[in-house]
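Regression check, 3-hydroxybutanoyl-coenzyme A case 309:
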Amino acid sequence: MDKFEEAFNKIIEKDRKVEPRDWMPEKYRQTNIRQISQHAHSEIIGMQPEGNWLLRAPSLRSKQVLLAKIQDEAGHGLYLYSVAETLGISRQEMIAQLQSGEAKYSSIFNYPTVSWADIGAVGWLVDGAAIVNQVSLQRTSYGPYSRAMVRICKEESFHQRQGYEIMCSMAFGTAEQKEMAQDALNRFWEPALMMFGPHDSDSVHKGQSMEWKIKRESNDHLRQRFIDRTVPQAQYLGLTIPDDQLKFNEETQHWETGPFNWDEFWNVVKGNGPCNQERIDHHIAAHKDNEWVREAAAAYAAKTELEVA
Ligand code: 3HC
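Current build output:
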């Protein structure tokens, strides 16, 4: 083992952070590029299902709150693309990987938001799951990713609260509103659980990612933390978790679920979800429509560089 690899291993062993200028195994670099760029894609694509309700939000306040949340997600995508760029991949390459279908983004965003209650369920469940995952990622070994997570987690808690506030107003509202809230929970519960990835036994990256402390806790461990936290919140709302095998294990103090539909999960990941094509088509169209913004920014940057030179 040469001195570079020794130095890298010591950073990981001592729980310190790997920085862009440090030597790192090529696979460590590629694994971080894969995970961080897909994380960024998820933030950006995740803006679409929520943007769908901006013009239909039921009040000025709820529109303002939703707009603030969506703008946050754009910022999270920006942080994460910038983090991935420190590993040597360009923004253009990442965007091309997303638009060609080569890169993934979280499958949850391939489901439609058909009612206002869905916006509540997205904030409550999707951002709630993201918080559990991202709080753990604050301890990831790649320095820029870890620091981006600290900043993003602060904003995620607002996202989860705004979603849960919508669910409260509907669950404690009229009978029709409570029915909409239950319908949203029925449709988003299992896809939200799948945000944590396949079971550990099927997680192809688990071993190496845990060894390099990219991942600090396993998919199933984080999923269980989310379930244990969320079931009591559904009970408070008077809503029913759509899993007739759900039961509380007094011994382990954990909520145990029935089996998940992994065939559906992989089918959506493979591109056959309800909104996969719509999400990519929208991204491609928006990227093209806003080409002038990128050109103007690049021209301004070039002009400023000339003036400084
Ligand atoms: N949707 C789509 N693909 C998924 C997935 C999901 N929910 N879960 C796993 N996969 C993919 C993985 O990307 C991997 O495919 P790849 O090799 O082509 O990348 C494959 O399934 C095997 O899964 P693994 O568990 O072995 O992969 P990982 O070790 O990368 O773990 C992960 C998956 C837990 C999602 C991990 O990548 C991770 O923690 N990523 C960072 C967090 C993230 O991306 N969250 C997405 C949501 S962001 C969000 O919700 C923002 C909020 O503000 C709304």
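Comparison notes: The radius of gyration is 21 Å. The mean pLDDT is 96. No diff flagged against the previous build.
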